[in-house]
């Protein structure tokens, strides 16, 4: 389960977000605004069909559900639930480097009087475990998808993250930086999060 709090500046008047990306845009006016509040809630289930060891690629089917907890009136979400299914792949390159990729298809919840469309999603990158302290992990990733609106650029983002695990199970926190690479993405973003592994 992923819970988020969002704080956005420079959001065009009338625009709506899907995560940190523009889902729908306002009219032709150039006025912008700021908004903050709870983001959407994601539930993800993943099954490890194979594991990345002994030269094999790990294959992980997954399913995700977005519960629309972000405020639609504030433009922080579409106000509709989304559903996604896909496959994740990972491997081991040497002792410290772990490349990965995901590809999925998302059924997008469509607010009234909208022309949003379903989209393909994808990402790829690699995580590197720092040799002297295996509690620290650096990840670089490209993340993108088709646009939810016809005629507009889909989101494309370069993300760099630092994870610090405070126990061997993987509980810890994450700090990340997100640089938007298309007009469908925010210019940049920063985030701080945590996770608990049972």
Strand order of the biggest β-sheet: 5-6-7-8-9-10-11-12-13
Report the uncertain regions: none
Order of helices and strands: EEEEEEEEEEEEE
Indicate the overall shape. globular
Radius of gyration: 18 Å
Mean pLDDT over the full residue set: 90
Helix fraction by DSSP (H/I, runs of at least 4): under 10%
DSSP summary, beta strand count: 13
Assembly state of the chains shown:
single chain
SS field, number of helical segments:
0
Structural class: mainly beta
What is the CA-CA span between the terminal residues?
Answer: 13 Å
State which percent range the strand residues make up. Answer: over 45%
Q: Major sheet, described briefly?
A: 9 strands, antiparallel
In short:
The chain is mostly beta strands and 198 residues long.
Explained architecture:
The chain is mainly β and 198 residues long. Helix content is 0%, strand content 54%. The protein has no helices and 13 strands. It has strands at residues 5-12, 16-18, 21-24, 32-38, 41-46, 58-67, 82-90, 97-107, 119-129, 136-145, 156-165, 172-180, 188-195. The strands form three sheets. Strands 5-6-7-8-9-10-11-12-13 form a nine-stranded antiparallel beta sheet, with no helix packed on it. Strands 1-4 form a two-stranded antiparallel sheet. A two-stranded antiparallel ribbon has the order 2-3.
Characteristics of this structure?
198 residues; mainly beta; two-stranded antiparallel ribbon; globular
Give the topology.
Layout: E1 5-12, E2 16-18, E3 21-24, E4 32-38, E5 41-46, E6 58-67, E7 82-90, E8 97-107, E9 119-129, E10 136-145, E11 156-165, E12 172-180, E13 188-195
Antiparallel strand pairs: 1-4, 2-3, 5-6, 6-7, 7-8, 8-9, 9-10, 10-11, 11-12, 12-13
């Amino acid at each position: 389960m992923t819970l988020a709090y969002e704080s956005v500046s420079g959001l065009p008047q009338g625009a709506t977000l899907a995560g940190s990306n523009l889902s729908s845009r306002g009219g032709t006016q150039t006025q912008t605004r700021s908004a903050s509040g709870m983001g959407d809630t994601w539930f993800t289930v993943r099954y490890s069909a194979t594991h990345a060891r002994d030269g094999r690629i790990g294959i992980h089917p997954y399913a995700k559900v977005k519960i629309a907890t972000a405020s639609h009136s504030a433009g922080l979400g579409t106000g509709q639930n989304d559903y996604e299914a896909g496959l994740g792949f990972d491997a081991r390159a040497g002792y410290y480097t772990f490349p990965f990729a995901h590809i999925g298809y998302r059924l997008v919840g469509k607010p009234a009087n909208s022309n949003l469309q379903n989209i393909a999603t994808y990402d790829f990158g690699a995580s590197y475990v720092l040799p002297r302290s295996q509690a620290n992990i650096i990840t670089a990733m490209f993340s993108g998808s088709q646009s939810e609106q016809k005629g507009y650029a889909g989101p494309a983002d370069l993300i760099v993250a630092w994870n610090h695990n405070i126990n061997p199970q993987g509980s810890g926190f994450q700090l990340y930086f997100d640089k938007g690479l298309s007009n469908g993405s925010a210019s940049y973003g920063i985030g701080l999060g945590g996770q608990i592994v049972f």
